[in-house]
Amino acid sequence: MTMPNKTPEQVAGDTVLQVRHLSVRIGHKPVLTDINLDIQAGQVTALLGPNGAGKSTLLKSLCQEISLDAGSIKVFDQALPQWNRQHLAKSLAVLPQHASLTFPFKVHEVVEMGLYPLTLSQQQGQELVREQLVKVDLLHLQNRSYPTLSGGEKQRVQLARVLTQLAQAPQTPILLLDEPTSALDLAQQHRVLSLAKTLAHQHQYAVIVVLHDLNQASRYADRLVILEQGQIVGDGCAASTLTADTVRQVWHYDPVVVNAPDSGSPLLF
């Protein structure tokens, strides 16, 4: 288990989540087949693949929203079903694609939901909420009614809530993001993905993000896991996985691949 007294530098590269021979069926249809993954602290891992490849199903399996047909998941070397949900919520949090909340809570009140089950003084809690709202560029809307926000603003509020939940994790924080940029404009997409990268590289979060934009994955993710029909067909850095042959095979599209002038990572057109 990753010990709470380790410094961020000491936990970098630690395996915090293990998936072994995971298979999931929905009805009689296999959705994931024999998935094996080790997720490390200090990395952004992007799950990629066409619609129906199993990306969101895999993410939901990691937070026990979907039952496994076969295989196992361990978090900090402990089987996922053995975790007390309240204890696990201190170190693992998920931002779903859609969060339904219709009550007229103010923005800061929604973010404050992430304070539980954390134990903080009222002042500490308020400071933490303010800090997360600054990170997602929503401090100016803290007193707005949540239902009046745009879809993208709601998504960023929910991200602030999740980050508040993980802010005092006793172990390496594990952050699961299911298409976090789907409702955001271009600038906010890059802001959110840059934040995820900062959390991983500077604070040793283990970040797993489902993305559709291959160029964003290439720019912000350390590791790309490509799924096709419920199986892993690629796993590695962008340069080794986002090849023209792989894109043709998986997405049935013939791309033009160039290298970004600043980083050398592949860009697809």
Overview features:
6-stranded mixed sheet, alpha/beta, 4-stranded antiparallel sheet, globular, 12 strands, 269 residues, single chain
How far apart are the termini?
A: 43 Å
Beta fraction: 25-35%
Q: Sketch the topology as an H/E string, one letter per element.
A: HEEEHEEHEHHHEHEHEEHHEE
Q: Write down the overall geometry.
A: globular
Secondary structure class reads alpha/beta
Task: Explain what you see.
This protein is α/β, with parallel strands linked by helices. 33% of the residues lie in helices and 26% in strands. Strand 9 and strand 10 form a beta hairpin. Helix 5 crosses helix 6.
Write the layout of secondary structure elements.
Blueprint: H1 8-11, E1 15-26, E2 29-40, E3 44-48, H2 55-62, E4 70-75, E5 78-79, H3 85-88, E6 92-95, H4 107-112, H5 122-135, H6 151-166, E7 174-178, H7 186-203, E8 206-210, H8 214-220, E9 223-228, E10 231-236, H9 238-241, H10 244-251, E11 257-259, E12 266-268
Helix pairs in contact: 5-6
